[in-house]
Amino acid sequence: GEALEVNREVNCVTDFIHGCEDQLQKLKKQKEKGLLYGIPISIKDQINCKGHISSGGMVKFLGQVKEEDSVIVQVLKHQGGIPFVKTNVPQTMINYDCSNPIFGQTLNPLNPQKSPGGSSGGEGALIAGGGSILGIGSDVAGSIRLPSSFCGLCGLKPTGNRISPAGCSDRPFVLTVTGMLGPMARDVDSLALCMKALLCQEMFQLDPTVPPIPFNDQVRLRGSPM
């Protein structure tokens, strides 16, 4: 409900992920409760979800419904998280604003005259507006960090190849800097919990190219960079 409200005001959601209610019912029956049990999670447009498109704000991708969940979505679900909406991006995702010809302009909920930043702008706007408590964005040159800054949130661009990018729709050209998926939320503890949940056996098995290094709580508690 909150997400719908925020979306009406700032136009940040591109799609609602069907089946999230069924997933919650299924989770309730499981003995093992994951680290993200029952948490609704918003995901950036380019992160593939079975039965949905990943448009990148480009008309040419509108007909391409994805056959399966990306690795990150599989891991979030494994940890009990519930991906429930996909969020807006600028066309091609190489822009610090958040507008495209399909879904239009996303506004900043703190000030509708301003941009929420990009390219994870829909995430920034939805979380800052109170429509989501945890989101997954992606960052090559600031695409998590800028919207987090513009919207007064916390965001993390993890080290290259720390989280599996498998099953995410790439930008239409090759970049020399490693793009990374990463969490966005209202506080650092939420980012840490999300990273801890993602860096699990399930991810290392689904994508053997990711170094199997679990989250180090000690490093975080020392106040050193994660």
TrEMBL record:
<dbReference type="GO" id="GO:0017064">
    <property type="term" value="F:fatty acid amide hydrolase activity"/>
</dbReference>
<dbReference type="Pfam" id="PF01425">
    <property type="entry name" value="Amidase"/>
</dbReference>
<dbReference type="InterPro" id="IPR036928">
    <property type="entry name" value="AS_sf"/>
</dbReference>
<feature type="domain" description="Amidase">
    <location>
        <begin position="5"/>
        <end position="212"/>
    </location>
</feature>
<protein>
    <submittedName>
        <fullName>VDHAP protein</fullName>
    </submittedName>
</protein>
<dbReference type="InterPro" id="IPR052096">
    <property type="entry name" value="Endocannabinoid_amidase"/>
</dbReference>
<dbReference type="InterPro" id="IPR023631">
    <property type="entry name" value="Amidase_dom"/>
</dbReference>
<dbReference type="InterPro" id="IPR020556">
    <property type="entry name" value="Amidase_CS"/>
</dbReference>
<keyword id="KW-0378">Hydrolase</keyword>
<dbReference type="GO" id="GO:0004040">
    <property type="term" value="F:amidase activity"/>
</dbReference>
<dbReference type="GO" id="GO:0009062">
    <property type="term" value="P:fatty acid catabolic process"/>
</dbReference>
<comment type="similarity">
    <text>Belongs to the amidase family.</text>
</comment>
